[in-house]
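Journal club prep — side note

Before the paper discussion, L.F. wants everyone to see what a predicted structure for a comparable chain looks like in token form. Sequence:
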Amino acid sequence: MSAAIRFGARVKELRLHLCQKSASSQGVRDFIEQHYVSIKSNNPKLPILIRECSGVEPKLWARHELGKETCYSLKDLSASDILTKLQSVA
């Protein structure tokens, strides 16, 4: 399913913020484990940054053209919910 995600030229960078241990970040950790490799192989020039910090709320940041950034909360979402959210960003 993640093989279909291709980000257009308007998306310049993706950042995932998550906690290494918290239950609210479990879906993000599962998402990275299950889908990161295929998304990165389909978008080799797109920077995908993964930032871990203890106690942080899981979020997805997308940087678009002209420096515009959007933030999406990933708190308590499953890996499949995060994949759906990424598809909406693409």
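L.F.'s comment for the group: The helical segments are 26-42, 79-89. Keep this in mind when we get to the figures.
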